[in-house]
Automatic annotation (TrEMBL):
It comes from the Eukaryota. Keywords: Hydrolase. GO terms for molecular function: hydrolase activity. It comes from Trifolium medium. This is Ubiquitin carboxyl-terminal hydrolase 13-like.
């Protein structure tokens, strides 16, 4: 999942406005049984 923070870090570094290099995005795992409506980002997102 790419967040605004990931876009802010990569804009201007050979990445265009809404494209993100997902290899540089922090990844995490969640249980397969977790419903999508329960899935939330635990840390606040800061826009640079």
């Amino acid at each position: 999942v790419a967040q605004d923070e990931d876009l802010g870090e990569q804009i201007g570094n050979n990445i265009y406005f809404d494209l993100v290099d997902h290899d540089k995005v922090q990844s995490f795992r969640d249980q397969k049984q977790t419903p999508f409506n329960v899935f939330k980002v635990s840390s606040p997102v800061t826009v640079l």
